[in-house]
Write a structure and sequence with these properties.
Elements lengths: L7 E2 L2 E2 L1 H27 L6 H8 L3 H8 L2 H21 L7 H18 L1 H8 L10 H8 L3 H10 L7 H23 L10 H18 L3 H6 L10 H11 L1
Antiparallel strand pairs: 1-2
Helix pairs in contact: 1-4, 1-6, 2-3, 3-4, 4-5, 4-6, 4-7, 5-6, 5-8, 5-9, 8-9, 9-10, 10-12
Amino acid sequence: MDKNSVTKRNGVTNYRVAQDLHQQELRKGILDDTSDLLMREGTTALSMRRIAQLVGCSTTVLYTMFGNKQGLVDELYLRGFDMVRQALEAVPRSGHPQDYIYDLCYAYRNFALTYSTYYAIMFLKVMPEYIPSEANRRLGQKSFQLVVDAVRDCVAPEAIAENEAWEIARIIWATVHGHIGLELAGHFDYPGVSPQQMLERALQAIISTLLLTPNRIQGVNSYNCLGYSCWHLPVVAVLVRFC
């Protein structure tokens, strides 16, 4: 295959396609370098001038590409969710739908450990002043649609509403997210059991309970009068099981 075939149309190199591909790669490189800078030196280092010095371009280039600092941080946030989506989409669908949920959770953990800087930007509030727009939050939420679909596949379609599938998916996500946060902070250094095994045990308790209980979410929601969000309760159950 011609190494330039990606940028050719009718045998002629297309300059605009090649330029767009270069811009996309350049954009990704700047975002990766910026996320690393943020984690190394903190939010005070995150200025357009400092980033320009780091990547070897002028601030004008950055303003042209991202608009302003807020625009750059928005793209960091969205790129992280896009990477999550790609990681989850790469998980093969095989075997029982419930096994697919486990595999999605493991892929999510692997993403967080491999791209911890992006994960921190997305979920750990390393930039306390940054508040993503509602539109960006919705775009990020779409990354987890595969988990919602997998939940629905485990239950007869007529037996579960869309909002209930989302609620179950959020509970599963909250469990994995809590595990990852503790793991990244170094709190899972226990002899005889790996972090992966601990996550597997937690998921076994959570998923089997949520999917097999007749009144799955309704039973949990009865605690709302006490001021608890519904996802706290399965997490507490897992903590009790481990104690």
